[in-house]
């Protein structure tokens, strides 16, 4: 097997690992509503973390053996794999609108990533890291506040998923800066990026877990899948000097791809809102027992004959 084929295989397996991890996260969120962010007592949550970690390692391995323009779009297949896996193992099929929305979001994201060109690798300076981290923290905080403010469960989940996508995307940016700096300056020259990786990765895990609580699987997963690389690409364009391929035409195609992804997310959101956006019903054994009082017939007193 040549290097290119190996990179494609690793990227596909990585997407499958991410998809299964998301399915497990969603099941934990539905069955343990008392701990929306970190259900540490649930083995399934730790299994989901392990699957996501495996997906990340496989994705890095794919980038080692293959070009970024091929590996990154393949990573967008996570949502495409998640739908049939959930249908087979959980006997839960997504509706037509959800399937169309997922496909549009994935195709748009793949197009956007394939149009992003590479620049000479360089790491961020300390000042740039602070600016990027501050802007990202502001965006995450704003989306989290929005999630606390809105009343519709589906919009709350989408806001949390968007915040998780921002956190994961910035964590990827810090990982890239750390890797580039490590290769040129050694780890001692890039220690400032380590707290950023830990902070944003942990925030992404907690927020993504909470996002599955009220909107099912498809909408939150698609949001994270789109926002994560979109944020990383935006930072790459503005900080790392990356550009769009094919000049002005490529930039226009990238805008069209972004609009396509946004349309897919809008379809997913409206689909969940039309269904009520309450997520799945809890199994009967997980619902609190409500005592039922049997109605008693009123006791009729014997009629007394009153003699005058």
Main β-sheet description: none
What is the strand tally? 0
Compute the gyration radius: what is it? 24 Å
Question: Which ranges are low-confidence, i.e. pLDDT below 50, for 5 or more consecutive residues?
Answer: 277-299
- SSE class: mainly alpha
- How many structural domains in the coordinates? 1
Strand fraction band? under 5%
- Report helical residue fraction: over 70%
| Molecular shape | globular
Name the helix and strand elements from N-terminus to C-terminus, one letter apiece. HHHHHHHHHH
Continuous helix count: 10
Q: Give the mean pLDDT.
A: 78
**First and last CA, distance:** 112 Å
Describe this structure in words.
With 308 residues, this protein is mainly α. The chain has one domain (3-277). It has ten helices and no strands. The chain has helices at residues 3-31, 43-65, 68-75, 78-89, 96-114, 126-149, 153-185, 193-211, 218-238, 247-275. Helix 4 runs antiparallel to helix 9. The radius of gyration is 24 Å and the shape is globular. Mean pLDDT is 78; it is low at 277-299.
Give me some keywords for this one.
308 residues, mainly alpha, 70% helix, Magnesium transporter NIPA, transmembrane
Summarize the structure in short:
The chain has helices at residues 3-31, 43-65, 68-75, 78-89, 96-114, 126-149, 153-185, 193-211, 218-238, 247-275. It is mainly alpha-helical and 308 residues long. The chain has one domain.
Secondary-structure blueprint of this entry?
Layout: H1 3-31, H2 43-65, H3 68-75, H4 78-89, H5 96-114, H6 126-149, H7 153-185, H8 193-211, H9 218-238, H10 247-275
Helix pairs in contact: 1-2, 1-3, 1-4, 3-5, 4-9, 5-9, 5-10, 6-7, 7-8, 7-9, 9-10
